[in-house]
Amino acid sequence: MMQVMNKVNNYIYILDNKIYVNLTNACTNDCIFCIRKQKNDVKGADMKLTQKPKFEDVVEQLEEHISLLGNGVTFCGYGEPLIELDLLLKTAKYIKEISPDTKIKVNTNGHANAFHKKNIVPLLKGCIDEVSISLNAQNESLYNKLCMPKITNAYNEMLDFAKKCVENNIKTTFSIVTNYDKEVNSYECKKIAEKIGANFRERPWIENGY
Ligand code: SF4
Prior knowledge:
single chain, TIM Barrel, seven-stranded mixed β-sheet, 7 helices, 9 strands, 19% strand, binds iron/sulfur cluster
């Protein structure tokens, strides 16, 4: 089901009857396939944020869709959600308080430990059920070509973050975008996922996004 929200600062948006959270437009990558380069909206909901979200504003928008909480909540949006770590954790804990069975997932580029200069994975335990990490490539040079990271050693930082998630028993899935760059080798990427005990998902490139 699609729901169109025309308000500014959509911290919450709905896709397929599920709640998604958009906390930031900042990102430590600049992927050549990033949908943000093409359009500002997801299903009509403007993803561009004009101000940093306050917890109260996120909760207010969340409560407009309280009946959908049981379908799960995903932190994603037009930016890297773990950049807003404190707000993400506060929001996730609030959701678990009011709806303990709600599964909470974070779609991330896996740079959070490098960005925050500490291991943040233990902080996710107990409030984040699953992380989906953008592997995107089977090696560093292809990753750098596709993702144009703004931090050093980004590929290895991402792999290390994924390992730590697995070690902390957080359900971990590596994803790649297929049908975009023919150099991306699904088989090799899947082997990387298997080696660390992560799941693997291919996400077909959608030309105009959602
Ligand atoms: S990591 Fe995600 S939000 Fe960041 S540039 Fe890449 S596709 Fe866009």
